[in-house]
Structures are given as C-alpha cells and as structure tokens.
Amino acid sequence: MNHHFHGKKVNYTYAEINLRTLKKNLEAVREEAGKAGAAGGVKVCSVIKSNAYGHGMNETAKALTEFGSEYLGTADYRESLILSDYLKRRTKKKAKILCLGILTEEKKFFDEVVTRDIEASLAEVDIAQKLNDYARSVNKKATVQIQVDTGMNRIGFSMNEAYSAIEAISRMKNLKVKGIYSHFATSEIAGNAFAGKQLKQFKDLVRCLESSVMKFELRHISNTGGILNFKDPYFNMVRPGISLYGYYPDRKKVVRDIGIKPVMTLRSRVNFLKSVPKRESISYGRLHFTDKLTKIASIPVGYGDGYSRLLTNKSKVLINGKPYDTVGAVCMDWVMADTGSSSEVNVNDEVILFGEDYPAYKLSEITGTIVYEIICSVSSRVQRVYTY
Fold first, then answer.
1. Domain boundaries of the chain, sorted by first residue
2. Is there a contact between 71 and 48 (Cβ–Cβ < 8 Å)?
C-alpha cells in the first residue's frame, strides 16, 4: 500500500520534495565551497531557475531562503518578479534575487529592476546606459552585476571588450555595481585545462579592474562543478544548481562524493492490474509482446507528466521497493510494468518512478541525456508535495 499521501488533496502521481534533504544538500555545498577559505566567507546564490529544476520555484526558494541562502538565481525577469512577490508574502527572511538573464533595448522590466529588490545582469554597454538613464529619470539607482564571457560564447562581455566596457559602466552614476561574474563551460571535469584557463583569465581581469577601476562586493564563477573542482579563495560567492537537488553534473566524472542526495521522489500507484496471456502486445505500436502469462500493472504517469517516451521498454519502476521492467510504449498518461505471473503486487501499491532509491540519473543514462533534463521535465500537472 501507499503509506505516504492519501485523500483527494493529493493526486495518484505526485512529486515528493523533501525539504530536509534540500537543507542538508545546501549545508554540504556551503561546506565544500568554504574550504577554499575566501576572506569573509563564501556566499551562496542558489539557482532556482526552470521551476527550481522541476522542484517548484516558489516553495523551494522559500525553503532555501529560510535555510540561509544569501542569493537566489533566476533565469529571467518574469521568474524574478513572481518569486519576489511570493517571498514578500510568505517569509520574513530575506534573500537577494540575481537575474542571470539579460535586459534588452525595449526597456522591458526596467521599472521593476529599478524599484524592486532584483539585481540585474549587464552584458552590453548600450543597455547599461539605457538602464542608467531610466534610473536617473525616476531618481533611483539600479543594482547590477556584470557578466563576462570567458569561454561559453553565450552571453556576457567578451574578454577583449570587458575592461573598457566595465570602465564605462563605472562612470554611470545611477548604477550600483554589486558584483562581477562568469560561467564555466567544463567545470564538471576535474583538472580540465579549458576550465583552468577560464578561471585564470577571469581572475586576472577582475584583479586588474579592482586595482584601477572599481571594487566589487561579489566575485563569482563557480557552478556546482566549479565548487567541486576549481575552488579559489579570491572568489566569494558560488552558484550551485544541480547539487542542491541531489545530483552531480556528470556522475561518471565525480572525484568524490560530498554527501548530497536526491530531493525529489516521483511517486505514483498501481491503478489497474490485468492478467495478459502469452504473445499478447502491450500499448501503442505493439512494441512489446508477453513471453508468458503475466500480470501487467498500469500506472497513471506518462510523457504528459515528463516521464519520457524514450524510456519505452527500457526503464524500471519500484513497486513496494522491488524493481519491475516497464513494457510497451510510454503513453501520455500511463506506463505499464510487467509484475510477473505470481506477483504479490496489488492495486493501490506504491510506485517510485525515480528518487533516492532509483536515482534520476539512471533514466538519463537510458535516454542519452543529462539528469538536469529528467528532473526539469516533470510537468506542471504533477502535484508537488513538500515534506520535512
């Protein structure tokens, strides 16, 4: 039987988010990040973009704030505003919001950046000037952080323009430059030469800027991989993402385990059991045939919930803690499991699709993707249930 959540308030398929595990993961990450010994301690910017990697942005961010995360990192300004409004209503503790996305010349979100507790990322001088002019027009200052591209070739000031651009920004009186940051491309690989080059170039640039242009309260480059493999005491903030939720960027390249565990368990129940004779097909396309008389358990979860169709005939589920093969094409709303001819499985028994006992990386290995995509793909129709 399902010993977790019953009743009309919780759906058969739901994502259990264990906030106690989240807290322990944050503590483990903070301890690891602090081992470099940055003067004044290392701040944490917990990355909660993409609905907190599928865990539910608002509740997860609220918990991380209450657990002491100094910053929360969002992907865009809409996320930032939704989160700001939620936290203002729901918690007395404060965490700064750093939007890792960029502003554009259409001036969308300028007012919110200037008037709300949101720190904007700058990657263009023209946009910086427009933001400065807007802030001056309303007699305010906008708090910003500067993003430098050291090798991702995505967004940020390029290395050959960064010094002169930041020098120009430093003269803009209605911008308060709080920090400067970059982003690793290959930090999950310990000792990687390209990541080492990024670190050195960024550090040299920031030192040069601090000696002749301006000081930065915050200097940061490390994502989870950087925290694990490229610690440097010159930097005083880190931006963990996947590690908060219990996974490593690339499990096969991890040098050592820091004790993090999966926060999310995707749970369901057996809704229907059917005895199926030998040589009968299961599901769309007739991609699986039974090889003997067996019982097929139908579970109300499918690709509409984020359980990938690429898992067809390849994954396992845990029913009452025991693994069973999934069979037949994954449907939008159902997945089937072969529970055997003498199975003790019953209707309403608990099913785990992934979690601590069957980690999501096992599904990512099957589908040829990364664990980030598996957990981020859990759809909005899957209810999140928070436990502690």
1. 35-249, 264-387
2. no
Catalytic one of 14, 23, 43, 49: 49
Question: Topology of 264-387 in CATH?
Answer: Lyase, Ornithine Decarboxylase; Chain A, domain 1 (2.40.37)
- Residue 87, burial from CB neighbour count under 10 angstroms (0-12, 13-18, 19+): buried
DSSP one-letter code for 191: T
pTM: 0.95
Reference 221, options 31, 28, 45; nearest CA is 45
Catalytic residue check, 303: no
Model pLDDT for residues 66-91, shown as the tens digit of each residue: 999 999 999 999 999 999 999 999 99
Burial of 94 (0-12, 13-18, 19+ CB in 10 A): exposed
Residue 261, H or E segment? none
Given 93, 94, 284, 388, the catalytic residue: 284
C-alpha torsion sign, points 210, 213, 217, 222:
negative
Q: Which fold has domain 35-249?
A: TIM Barrel (3.20.20)
**386 in catalytic set:** no
The 10 Å Cβ neighbour count of residue 363 is 25
